[in-house]
Structures are given as structure tokens and as C-alpha cells.
Amino acid sequence: MRKLMYAILFELYALLLAWVQAIGGVRTDEAKYLLNIPYPHPPLARSLIALTSRFPYQELLWRVIFATLVVQAAWIVWWMARELSRDQRVTTMAAWLLCAAVVLQAGSVMMAPLTALEGLLFLALLFEARRNPENWGPWQAFGAGLLWLVSLLTAYQAVLYFPIVVALFLPLRFPWWQKALYVLAPLPLALLFGIAEPAILASFVNAGALNTSLTPMDKALSLFQAWCVGGSILIGIVGIVGMALDRQWAMFLSLALVAAFLYVSFRMYYAILFTPLLVAGMVLFLRRAWSSPVSVLGPVALITVLCVGLFPPSLKPGASRAVMQSIALQGKTGTVLIAGSFGHDWQYESSFPVLRFHPSLLTNAQAVVCLDQCDDMKKRDGWVTLPNLPTEVWVRENDQ
Amino acid sequence: MHRPSRVPALLFLVLILALAGPQAVRAWRIRPLYLDASVRDKANVALQQVSTSQGWNLSDMEIREVTTDGLAFLHREHRRNPDPPACFAFTFATSELHPCGS
């Protein structure tokens, strides 16, 4: 009964996090998944998300689902820490829930929180495999292999947890070819998905070149910030000490892979990829040393508040929603042309086909959105601007 | 005695192969993109040209087949309303864009 009450409280927390993310509207990366745009990840998760594209509150639905998955994953932490005392288990569970990366990312429709959740599952299975390797039957190994396959077909970043997956299968008492099959076979398959869709490979090249203009110091600083957010500093320190005390080299290797990835292609939303490793390290730490819940959770909560202050979620919707709603209110038909570079959120918010601006396409257009200068429009007859919008928008004049 | 324990692993292998099959076919159909630099350059120019003339985002075009003569791709508007893909072919020599099969 008490657990049910906690689960309900967690769900309310998940709804709050989803609502906070919803305030800022759909970001371009989120729109990419909501619209099943074929890069940068394999199609598994985005295809499922796209099945709900006709649902009027598609974005909100997935915010709630993702937030629920990430928040209720606290029960996985609870399970991982089952050798600890009740207070210690509550501490680790709360550490997951209060960690800045979870607070900042749980309600976003992104692949990073899902990947982190999969990482947490691998770590829970690793703990279980180390504890009772003889309990693993062939179907349990199949399940772990399937989770690895699903993870790689959801987002390529899952490969950062490869050392955990290797460490998970190593102690199992199975023929070597079965272990190799479960661990290695999904890798070339994921690569094949990338080769079959050139946009995925192109986006890899772009991601690899993302930080090339930054100095090594800037990159290191960004990485440090991500580590701070990923473990609210204290979980980060305790987690690394826990890994070292327990000599969990696979976890260290995975941590190094996540760090290397962030160093090359930094985005703050990847900070959550650190979180499962650091929380699992904290569980290992608490097996050997004990601090009171208040001494751990107090600073974690305080640092999370600071992190949220420093890297706040967007609480102001982008221009795309307001502009597209105003265009829809005109009651016209035809394409919407956008001058300048635009994100996928413009496609998501539009009821009409969205095209890149080119003068030859004006014939079938009902509106032109000017994210770049479009002085040319002032010289054209039959077009008027829409007032009070965050960006310059031209629509066809009403026939009178 | 060991036979039952092989079933899940063999099932996993079948699953991997079943997923790999269609992707291998797709990759095979676009292999000139990876094997022939001149075709890759032509395809790049072609897609940019189509993107400019039609107003389509590059990410709205999924390449399905590439030959030395041209390429075929699926175009999707990527919006929330029903969004069926349309197949187009582009000929390098004439820079012509036309629906597949026409």
C-alpha cells in the first residue's frame, strides 16, 4: 500500500516535469521524433511515436510517457539497492529523482532520457549477473540481448553502455558463441541501419564536427557542466568513488565513453547519460560507507536547484506555434514558405505543407514566414503582413 | 541436454537476420553512394537542386536507389496530418525530376 502511494506521488512528480517541458513548446529535436524524420537515430522509437501523429495532444502524451518512464525508473534503483538498508535505498531512489539531469530532461521527447533509462536497466542486470550468475537461464539472457538490440535501434548513444553489456554477459554460464551473439550481433545491425539511410551518416558527421570551433578548455568546461548536471555534483563524486571502491572497470569505461562523446558533440541534454552510471556508483558506495539521507539528499537538492537556475528549461515557446496558429486562423489554403533556416518544430506546428522559400513557389503559397530578410515581399502586390507576431509573416490579401 | 538452451539464442539470430535483410537490400540499392565518388557528388548536387527548386528539406527526402544515371527517393512532407510518401526519380544527365515509374 505504501509503495502504491509512492508510485502515485512519483506519477504526480512526472506530470509536473512533463508540464514544465510543455510550457516551452516543441523543440526542433523533439519534432524530429514526433514526426518520424529519418535521422539521426534508427527508426524503432520514432516509428512508435509517429503512430500517434493524429492524436491531438501527441506531444503531451509522449512527454507524460517519457517522464513517467524516467521517474518510475526510481523503482529500478530501489531494486538495484536491495542489499542496502531501507534508509539507504530511499536515499538512492531519491538521488535519482532529485538529480538535476532527471529534473531537466524527464519530460522532454528526446532519445537521451530513454537511453539513460536503458543504461540503468543494463546496470541493474549487471548487478544481478554479478550477484547470481547461476540464476540466469537462456531466456533471461535472451531478454538482456533483446534489450541491447532495442536500445541500439532506439538511439545510437546506447553504444556508450557497451562495456556494461559486455560485463553483464561475461559472468553468465553460457557457451561463448551465445554471449558473442547477444553482445556483438546488434552492433553491425545498427550500423547497417545507418548505412541504409544516408541522412543518419550525414548527421553523424555533423555531430562529430559540432564542437570543432571550441577550444579544448571550452570543451572540457562544457563536459564538466554536463557531469555536474548528470550527477548534481554530489552523486557524481560519490558515484565515482563507489565505482573505484568496487573496482567496476566496465562502469568506468562506460563513463569515459560518455565523457568522450560529450567532449566531441556536446549538448546539455546528453548530461542524463551520466546519471545511471553515477547513481549505480552511489549504490556501490553506500554498500561500503554510510551517510545519513539528509547529508546526501540535502546537498543534491540544493545543487539541483542551482543547476536548474543555471541551465533552466525553456519556459517560452518558440515562434513557430504562435506563427502557425495565426496563419491557420486566416482560413486560407496553400503551402507555407519559410525564408531562412528553420527547425522541424515549424513542420510540427503547421497544418499545411511547409516549404523552403523560393520565389517560384509563391504561386501555391498562402503565407511566407521571414526568419531571414525577405525584402522582396514588400514589392509584391496582394501580400500583407500579419501584426503582433514574433517574426515577420506575409499572407495573401483577402479578396475584396 | 543443451539443446533447449540454444532455442532463445537461435531465435535471437533469426530476429537479427530478419531485421538485417531489408536493410541490406536498401544499402545494396544505394551502394554507388558509398563506392563511387562521382556518383556521390552528382547525388549531392541533385538533392540540393531539388531542395531549392521544390522547397523540400533534405531530411524530407529518403534516398531509395542510386545508379550511375540517377537516383530515386521518397518525399514526405513530415507533418502531423496524413502524410503518405511520394516516390520521385531524378536523372543526372537531364536534371529532370519525375514521379517514379513515369
Spell out the key features of this protein.
heterodimer, A: 400 residues, mainly alpha, 2 domains, 20 helices, B: 102 residues, alpha+beta, 4-stranded antiparallel β-sheet
Explain this structure.
The complex is a heterodimer of chains A (400) and B (102). Chain A has 400 residues and is mainly alpha-helical. Chain A is built from 20 helices and 5 strands. Chain A has 2 domains: 2-310, no CATH class; 319-396. Chain A has helices at residues 2-23, 28-34, 44-50, 58-72, 74-80, 86-98, 100-105, 111-131, 138-154, 162-169, 176-184, 186-196, 198-208, 216-231, 234-245, 249-264, 275-288, 293-310, 319-329, 344-349, and strands at residues 335-339, 354-356, 365-370, 383-385, 392-396. Chain B is of the alpha+beta class and 102 residues long. Chain B is 49% helix and 22% strand. In chain B, strands 1-2-3-4 form a 4-stranded antiparallel sheet. At the A-B interface, α9, α11, α12, α20 and β2 of A face α1 and α3 of B.
Quick synopsis:
The complex is a heterodimer of chains A (400) and B (102). Chain A has 400 residues and is mainly alpha-helical.
